[in-house]
């Protein structure tokens, strides 16, 4: 310990010569003995990894080897204060372990000297030559210090790799030996031993710090791994929960779909079943695993599949499809079904399959058939008396059998008009019934579109003139293979409607053209956007169907009626039948005729601007 006012010595090793007696301590005599002693102490130090333990071993060993009265390690704290943190002291002397000393006891200038490697050996603290500071004299007296030996414990500031600059040292503390019973001349070996052990402390400090840092890194890494581990655990739990939820929702879906008396399925883009509800087993008598992954062709067989195929292709082309079909069940019974295919368009806008819903409409169909038959029978029974009634009225209206009063004549004309309507209705019902029931077969023959169009226009010319409508016929000599009478009936029906729903002075066009492409499925109010060039290009290609169109500039049809007007007794305005003399059956008959020819019929219209009725017929294959 140095005094505050003591002049610091620049000597590296200062063995002060005083009038003290030479010591009688048992020093190791030879260098060999000294080396062995140092190795022994170093070995003991390395027994422990704990700094506290190392410091304790050092002070105890020094105290024993030097037979000093007190050996201590004084740690200098960052604020300049300090305290002994390890001590070996003979029982008869006061222990100073743990006492705190103010900064004045070890001022900064002394710290700097020791940091440069200064050691201090004072043989007799009372000797004025020793230059022990005044403030320290009090201390040495209090703790009975007669001689002292002080070496610095240095601490490297940049011991850790990578080292970019030479190591810098700072004072960490002091290793101090006290002789308390009498002054003592310290031997060079003792100084050397103290220095070497102070170095050992420095190494232990650096290692301790490295160890601490390693522990921090390990702790950080462990914490990181624990965080990753716990997030993985959470992910596993989440996945398990998702799987459970999925299983539950799948079970629920199965429960619901199995409870429904309809066929529900999902079909992939290879036409193979990927999901089927229980009804498939009930209807087809095949277990679900025998259907799963199997193609529709295999499941339904060659009897039924060809009727489904075009609709499947439509669905896989991205169209919603609705159609009716007849299917045979495993018990041999036949069912009428209504089928819906809804395309499944995935996230990449790709059609990856379709959902199929098939419902049994056998009962509805049976009732419809009964109703049709009933209407047909009634109409048939009505026709004969109606015809004679109609003929009789016609004769009466001429006045040949007597002239009625003006009112009487008016009533007679109303009766004649309505009987005529009734005759038309009965004829239409019977017509439709015959076509639908298959009682009539289309007797197809070769003819040209021109022939049919001229015939239809000629038939309607009188009506057109009566309504002041100009019929514009644009025929083309295209070969057809059709039942000419029925196609003329369809054309006259459409022309008659066009005339009825146009205002006087309007035009009605009748056109025909070959088409290379099948028409896109009809959409409400859709306008043809095809350019002339595209049409010409189509004509260049092999036409696969013929398109007829009847276009008017009449009142038009609202969007929500574009589909329904093709159904029986459906009219845009229920008063149309009275005002225009219609029956609401004309378009239904047209549709049946066209469908019997393998074609399609639809309408595009703009309210107030007019309508275009279009139908296609397959090309004449000869
Ligand atoms: P109707 O005998 O009543 O004409 P249709 O089946 O031929 O029966 O037509 C059904 C309904 O469709 C008509 O009542 C009318 O409301 C509508 N309709 C048909 N053609 C046209 C048209 N060219 N313009 C406007 N509405 C039409």
Write the layout of secondary structure elements.
Blueprint: H1 31-46, H2 51-66, E1 70-76, E2 82-89, H3 108-115, E3 120-122, H4 134-142, E4 147-156, E5 169-179, H5 188-259, E6 263-268, E7 273-276, H6 279-284, H7 288-291, H8 296-316, E8 321-328, E9 334-345, E10 351-360, H9 362-398, H10 406-437, E11 445-448, H11 449-466, E12 470-474, E13 479-482, H12 484-500, E14 507-515, H13 532-540, E15 545-552, H14 576-580, H15 586-596, E16 601-606, E17 610-618
Helix pairs in contact: 1-2, 1-5, 2-5, 9-10, 10-15, 11-12, 12-15
The protein binds adenosine-5'-diphosphate.
Residues 497-498, 501, 552, 554-555, 557, 565, 571-573, 576-577, 582-588, 611 line the site of adenosine-5'-diphosphate.
Residue-averaged pLDDT: 84
Bound molecules: adenosine-5'-diphosphate
- Strand percentage: 15-25%
Q: How do the strands line up in the largest sheet?
A: 2-1-5-4-3
How many helix segments?
15
Shape: rod-shaped
3D architecture notes:
With 622 residues, this protein is of the alpha+beta class. Helices cover 45% and strands 20% of the residues. The chain has 15 helices and 17 strands. A five-stranded antiparallel sheet has the order 2-1-5-4-3. Helix 1 runs parallel beside helix 5 (188-259) and helix 10 runs parallel beside helix 15. Adenosine-5'-diphosphate binds at residues 497-498, 501, 552, 554-555, 557, 565, 571-573, 576-577, 582-588, 611.
């Amino acid at each position: 310990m140095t005094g505050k006012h003591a002049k610091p010595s620049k000597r590296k090793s200062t063995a002060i010569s005083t009038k003290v007696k030479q010591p009688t301590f048992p020093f190791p005599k030879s260098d060999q003995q000294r080396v062995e002693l140092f190795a022994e102490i170093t070995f003991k130090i390395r027994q422990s990894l704990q700094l506290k333990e190392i410091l304790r071993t050092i002070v105890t060993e020094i105290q024993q080897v030097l037979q000093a009265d007190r050996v201590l390690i004084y740690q200098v704290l960052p604020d300049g204060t300090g305290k002994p943190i390890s001590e070996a002291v003979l029982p008869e002397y006061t222990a100073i372990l743990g006492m705190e000393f103010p900064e004045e006891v070890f001022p900064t200038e002394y710290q700097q000297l020791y940091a440069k490697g200064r050691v201090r050996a004072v043989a007799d603290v009372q000797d004025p030559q020793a230059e022990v500071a005044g403030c320290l004299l009090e201390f040495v007296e209090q703790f009975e210090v007669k001689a002292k030996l002080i070496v610095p414990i240095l601490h490297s500031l940049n011991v850790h790799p990578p080292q970019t600059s030479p190591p810098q040292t700072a004072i960490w503390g002091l290793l101090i030996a006290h002789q308390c019973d009498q002054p003592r001349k310290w031997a060079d070996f003792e100084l050397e031993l103290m220095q070497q052990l102070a170095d050992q402390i420095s190494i232990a400090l650096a290692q301790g710090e490295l160890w601490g840092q390693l522990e921090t890194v390990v702790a950080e890494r462990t914490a990181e791994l624990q965080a990753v581990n716990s997030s993985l655990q959470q992910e596993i739990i989440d996945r398990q929960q998702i799987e459970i939820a999925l299983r539950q929702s799948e079970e629920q879906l199965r429960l619901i779909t199995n409870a429904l008396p309809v066929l529900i399925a999902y079909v992939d883009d290879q036409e193979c079943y990927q999901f089927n509800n229980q009804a498939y087993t009930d209807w087809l008598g095949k277990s679900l695993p025998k259907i799963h992954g199997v193609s529709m062709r295999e499941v339904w067989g060659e009897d039924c599949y060809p009727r489904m195929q075009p609709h499947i292709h439509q669905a896989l082309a991205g169209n919603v499809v609705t159609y009716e079909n007849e299917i045979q069940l495993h018990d041999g019974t036949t069912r009428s079904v209504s089928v819906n295919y809804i395309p499944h368009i995935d996230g990449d806008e790709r059609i990856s399959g379709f959902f199929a819903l098939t419902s049994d409409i056998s009962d509805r169909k049976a009732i419809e058939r009964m109703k049709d038959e009933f209407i047909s029978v009634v109409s048939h029974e009505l026709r004969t008396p109606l015809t004679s009634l109609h003929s009789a009225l016609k004769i009466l209206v001429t006045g040949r059998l007597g002239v009625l009063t003006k009112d009487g004549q008016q009533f007679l004309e109303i009766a004649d008009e309505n009987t005529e309507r009734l005759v038309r209705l009965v004829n239409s019902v019977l017509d439709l019934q015959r076509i639908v029931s298959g009682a009539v077969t289309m007797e197809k023959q070769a003819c040209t579109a021109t022939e049919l169009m001229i015939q239809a226009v000629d038939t309607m010319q009188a009506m057109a003139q009566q309504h002041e409508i100009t019929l514009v016929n644009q025929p083309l000599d295209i070969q057809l293979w059709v039942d000419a009478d029925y196609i003329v009936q369809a054309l006259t029906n459409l022309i008659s409607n066009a005339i009825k729903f146009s205002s006087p002075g309007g035009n009605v066009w009748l056109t025909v053209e070959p088409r290379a492409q099948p028409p896109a499925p009809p959409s409400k109010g859709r306008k043809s956007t095809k350019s002339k060039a595209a049409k010409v290009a189509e004509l260049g290609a092999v036409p696969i169907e013929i398109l007829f169109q009847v276009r008017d500039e009449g009142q038009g049809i609202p969007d929500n009626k574009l589909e329904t007007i093709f159904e029986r007794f459906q009219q845009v305005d229920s008063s149309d039948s009275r005002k225009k003399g219609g029956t609401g059956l004309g378009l239904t008959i047209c549709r049946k005729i066209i469908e019997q020819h393998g074609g399609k019929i639809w309408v595009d219209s703009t309210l107030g601007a007019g309508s275009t009725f279009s139908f296609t017929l397959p090309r004449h294959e000869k």
